[in-house]
Amino acid sequence: MIYIQIVISLLGGILLGWVIRQKIASHLTQSAEAKAKEILNKAKAKQQEILLKAKEDSLKILDQAKKEEDERRREIKKTEQRMERRQTVFEEKILELEENRKKLNQEKDSIEQAKDKIRQIYEKARAELERISSLSVEEAKELLLESTEEKIKDDILERIKKLEKYGSEEIEERAKSLITSVIERCAAAHTAEVTTSSVSLPSDEIKGRIIGREGRNIRVVEQLTGVEIVVDDTPEVVFVSAFNPIRRQLAKLVLDKLILDGRIQPARIERVVQDTKKELARDIRKAGEDAIYQVGVTGLDPKLVQLLGRLKYRTSYGQNVLQHSLEVANLSAMLAEELGAKVAICRKAGLLHDIGKAMDFEIQGTHPEIGKDIGEKYNLAPEVITPIATHHDDHPPTLEAIIVKVADAISSARPGARKGSYQEYIQRLEELENIARKFNEVERVYAIQAGRELRVFVSPVKTDDLGASKLARKIADRVEEELKYPGEIKVTVIRENRISEYAR
Hints:
- The structure is a single chain.
- The protein is mainly alpha-helical.
- It has 14 helices and 8 strands.
- The protein has helices at 2-133, 137-185, 205-211, 216-225, 245-261, 266-295, 302-310, 321-339, 343-352, 367-377, 382-390, 399-413, 422-437, 465-482; strands at 198-200, 228-230, 237-241, 315-316, 319-320, 442-448, 453-458, 490-495.
- Strands 1-3-2 form a 3-stranded antiparallel beta sheet, with helices on one face. Strands 6-7-8 form a 3-stranded mixed beta sheet, with helices on one face.
């Protein structure tokens, strides 16, 4: 019974708990549903709010868009009106231009007709004049020119003389002033050093020792140095003959050392030649370095400096080429200062203008062409290469090239700079005189002042003063075309008419 009560009690407790849980669950469900409804109601209210706001915003946007569209339409309408007005104006202008073109064409046609009529009248008048005068147009023109020249030739001659005098005096004065100031600033010896090719001997007995037994010594010297030793009857001297000046200098130094030492034999000659080659190479390099230091030129390739030093043993018409190059460099720099040109370019180009002569006995071609190739090989600036390549041209392309050419002519033409053979001198004077003798009016010709002036005597019967003036210009032009010469040549034409009468 007790168990039954206990079981009943337990079942009652369980049932009571279940009932309580059901009530609690029901209460919780009702509370959640209420909250959900409340949230849902709030969401619906918020949704309504958002929709209302969105509608308001959309209405505002639509209103703004309508306003902007209306504004654009008004602007487009105004633009269309402006375009229509412009099109109207353009159409009016086109019509006006078309009318003007028609008028111009009509005027052109009338002008062409008038020209044809004038041309016909001119041809008729010309034919009538030719018939009356029995002269063609060219003959009448020639006759008129001759008549005019005959009447006013004195005035023409006077005018020509006046213009020539004024122009030549002013140009000559300016040129003299410029060149004089430059030459005064360039102090150089009147006679440059000339490389000798003779070896002095203390006595004639040394000649036999130089030749050696059966000519062994002299053959060894010639083979090792590449020269020819000339031993003749000239007392106490032997001559070194070679086209290459470096070889000639090498042989001269070798002979000087052998003569001083006294031991002249093949083995000794070989050692002396080897030592002398090294000394000569050092001397050549030092000469090049001294040259660039003396004129203030920098940035040259060492091999180019070595080539420059070789000019110390190179001569041209008896003038030492290295001394000549230094002089041209200084003259070029001074001329560039006076004329406003590039001083550094002129100085470097003046120093290297004859660099081709360091190789012209080894490479085929003229020394300006060789110098150009050397400049390109050692990366010289084009502004420097141009004067080197054109310093003997008639019309150098740049101001710097002209300056180098002028400086080269000044250095070569000054007294004592060069020496030429007697035959070359006579030949040049004869060529100069023969040019003037080709003209029929010429009676006698004399080249004076070492070929710097040409005096031409003409027949007074064959030409007048105006013709003499023209003849001087023709002769000068012919000299410029046919001869090559440093400096300038003055052509003086003399027309003398002597009239003699006798009183008996």
